[in-house]
């Protein structure tokens, strides 16, 4: 089993995926419910591993991956820490903080991020992965860790074009953007309906109130509908 026979302190070299249930293998070729999967443990980095049985039989690359816990930790590294995602808050207010992936206490990936709790917004400023540890999905894990840390925030990046970070944001937050768009449409509808009701009330008041005098029906209507200018 790949990833199960490494001694502590070494690196298995496996790619990572967010810990949880996956429908397909890392190569996106096989449904794990059909092809089968094997769960094991990486003694060098501490997390569990999952393997696609069909990919193992075909000797395909990325047949086994590490199940990485994306919850941010603020605790200092210890001797048992293999592969962890850690938060480094900024030392000054309104400054850029960092989310890092540490391998045996050494940072191998850094994500620069700024968050505003008032506006509920997050901004990714940069992402860097050590060249020796690329093609293992560390960059994707960093972005997803930041999104999972503040799932209700609206996220953006410095490049909204074809950058890798922008593509990850587009894939990871469609439901969040849909909910925000529906909320804005509902607010617009409620505002329009309220304005139309005020316009109708003013029109009825103008027709019933003649010569500066109010009829009984006009008095009843005007007493229930407040006089308010249309915004």
Question: In words, what does this structure look like?
Answer:
With 231 residues, the chain is of the alpha+beta class. It has three domains: 1-68, no CATH class; 69-172, Gcn5-related N-acetyltransferase (GNAT) (Aminopeptidase, 3-Layer(aba) Sandwich), CATH 3.40.630.30; 187-224. It is built from six helices and nine strands; from the N terminus they run βαββαβββββαβααα. It has helices at residues 32-35, 53-57, 138-149, 164-172, 174-208, 216-224, and strands spanning 16-18, 37-41, 48-52, 64-68, 83-88, 97-103, 106-116, 121-129, 154-157. The strands form two sheets. The protein has a five-stranded mixed sheet with strand order 5-6-7-8-9, covered by helices on one side. Helix 3 (138-149) crosses helix 4 (164-172) and helix 5 runs antiparallel to helix 6. The protein starts with 15 loop residues before the first strand and ends in a 7-residue tail after the last helix. The relative contact order is 0.09. Residues 1-8 and 214-231 have low confidence and may be disordered.
Summarize the structure.
32% of the residues lie in helices and 24% in strands. The chain is an alpha+beta fold.
């Amino acid at each position: 089993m790949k990833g199960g026979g490494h001694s502590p302190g070494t690196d298995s070299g496996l790619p990572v995926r967010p810990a949880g249930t996956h429908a397909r293998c890392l190569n996106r070729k096989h449904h794990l419910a059909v092809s089968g999967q094997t769960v094991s443990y990486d003694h060098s980095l501490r997390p569990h591993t999952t393997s696609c049985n069909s990919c193992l039989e075909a000797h395909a690359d990325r047949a086994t991956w590490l199940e990485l816990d994306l919850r941010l930790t603020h605790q200092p590294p210890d001797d048992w820490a293999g592969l962890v995602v850690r938060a480094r808050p900024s030392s000054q207010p309104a400054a850029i903080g960092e989310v890092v992936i540490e391998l045996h206490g050494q940072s191998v990936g850094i994500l620069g991020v700024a968050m505003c709790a008032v506006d509920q917004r997050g901004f990714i400023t940069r992402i860097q992965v050590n060249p020796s540890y690329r093609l293992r999905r560390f960059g994707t894990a960093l972005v997803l860790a930041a999104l999972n840390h503040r799932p209700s925030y609206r996220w953006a990046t410095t490049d909204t074009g074809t950058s890798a970070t922008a593509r990850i944001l587009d894939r990871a937050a469609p439901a969040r953007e849909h909910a925000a768009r529906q909320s804005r449409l509902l607010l617009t509808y409620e505002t329009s309906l309220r304005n139309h009701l005020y316009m109708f009330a003013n029109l009825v008041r103008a027709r019933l109130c003649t010569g500066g005098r109010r009829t009984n029906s006009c008095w009843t209507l005007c007493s229930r509908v407040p006089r308010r200018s249309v915004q």
